[in-house]
Amino acid sequence: MGKLNGEKIKTCVFISGKGTNLLSIIKSSRDYNFPAKVTLIISDRINAPGLIYAKKYNIPFKVFSSENKSKFETKTLLELKKNHNRLICLAGFMKILSPKFIERFRYKILNIHPSLLPKYKGTNTHKRVLNNKEKYSGCTVHYVTSKLDSGPIILKKKILIKKNDNEKSLKYKILKQEHLIYPQAIRLLYK
Ligand code: GRF
User: Fold this and answer.
1) Best mutation site among 112, 139, 142 for ligand 1, i.e. most ligand atoms within 8 A of its Cβ?
2) Which of 20, 65, 142, 149 has the fewest CB atoms within 10 Å, measured from its CB?
3) At 84, which CATH number?
């Protein structure tokens, strides 16, 4: 799947938190040659700090509570249809989507995870990595399937863990790499 009739792929980014990956995708998409354009942002948290980027860059956004997953997905689906979104990027979106929703967008949902998948799926990755005295960690962009953090891998970036690294420093270093590989993965897939 590439650009449709020379148009950028209308992309929706799902967030729950800070949205720094959202920002990196928005910034990349301002490049004429970038294949995707963020045309919709969905947050399941009204106070997600990342919503500031929706306002700053004038991108339509919707906030739907995900407490009731089925209602969240129904409302979201309607918005995605209305906006003709063909790609979904999960960027710090903390809710697990239903298999039905994922199937509806087969191979059209991407996620970024702060570990070298298939290692360290789930949460608290940096803590677990450090506890296990790993030499390396990193981040992974992958397709979303109904098995958590297990879909086919698109791109990974490995970093060396230094002796004095702690959870905070590791998180920071990896996040910086995330901001590079998420847009890179999108370029790779849809160029
Ligand atoms: C990132 O570390 C990402 O890998 C994980 O959640 C964090 C989101 O950060 N899924 P941000 O909201 O993009 O700043």
Assistant:
1) 112
2) 65
3) 3.40.50.170
